[in-house]
Amino acid sequence: MLERFISLVRAEYMFVAAEIIRRKTVLFALILWPYIIMAFIVLLGSSMGTMSYFQQKIGANPILFFITGSFLLIVSLIFFDEISSRFWYDEFVGTLPYIMIAPTSKTVLAFAMGFPRLIINILVGISSLIPVYFILKSFPGLMEALIVIALSIFSALTFSTLAIIFSSVVLISGGGWRVLSIIRPLIMLMSGVLYPRFLLPLTIKFFTIIFPLANSVEVIQLFLVQEELTAYSLMLLGLATALALLYAPISIR
Q1: Per residue in 25-61, pLDDT tens?
Q2: Least enclosed by CB within 10 Å: which of 8, 95, 118, 154?
Q3: Taking Cα atoms as reference points, which of 113, 126, 114 lies closest to residue 31?
C-alpha cells in the first residue's frame, strides 16, 4: 500500500514538475504571490490606519501577519484546489471514466495529487517567509518561520480529508468551475487565513470550529502574537487532528 502511494506521488510529482518546467512563469508567479497579496492588503489597510495601530490592536506585525496569511492561503487549500480542478478537467476532456475504472484507490489517488504541489508550495514558503521573518526579527525569526511552515504543513494535511469531501461535491454537482468558485471563497472565509480569528466572537467561532483548517490557522495566528505554543494552541491542534480523522471515513466513501 505504501509503495503504491509513493509511486503515485512520484508520478504526480513528475507531472507537476514537467508542467512547471514547461511554464516557468507559473513558478515565478508562485514565488511572487505571497508578496503581492501582503503588499495589497498592507497598502489598502494603510489608507485606513497606521501599521502601528494594527500592531497595537492585534498584537502582531501586520507585514508578518499578512505574509503568513498569504502563504497559508496557497498551502492550506492545495488539496482542494488540486483535486477539484484535476478531476473536473479529466471529466471535461473525457478521461475521468478511465480513471474511475482503474484498480487504484480513488482516495489514495486524491491524496497523492496534492503532495507534489504541497512540496513545491513549501519551497515557495521558504523563499517568502524566511527572508521577511529574518529581516524583521533577525535570527530568532528564522526559527519562528520554520515553526510557521511546519504548522502550515499540518494545517494542509488535517484539511485534506475535508478537502476531498468538498471536491466530491464539486464533481457530483456537475457545476464545475461555478461551484468551485463558490466553495473556495467560503473556505477562505470560514478558515480566517487573512483575518485574526482569535478576535472573533465565540458565537461565530462555534460555527467555524468544525473546520480543521480554521483551528490550525488560529494556532498560527496566536503564535505570531504570543511567540509560543500555549496549552490552548495545543488543544486546537488536537481538535484539528480529531476532525481530520472524523472526516476520513466520509472522504473514503
Answers
A1: 777 777 788 888 888 888 887 777 778 888 888 888 8
A2: 95
A3: 126
Closest alpha carbon to 63 in 133, 130, 8, 127:
133
Secondary structure letter of residue 47 according to DSSP: T
Question: Would you kindly state where each structural domain of the chain is located, as residue ranges?
Answer: 2-252
With 0-12 / 13-18 / 19 or more C-beta atoms within 10 angstroms meaning exposed / middle / buried, residue 180 is buried
In contact, 216 and 155? CB cutoff 8 Å: yes
Residue pLDDT, tens place only, 145-161: 999 989 988 988 888 88
Distance CA 216, CA 238 (A): 9
The C-alpha cell that represents 194 in the structure block: 487573512
Do 63 and 42 contact (CB within 8 A), yes or no?
Answer: yes
| Number of CB atoms found within 10 A of residue 74's CB | 23
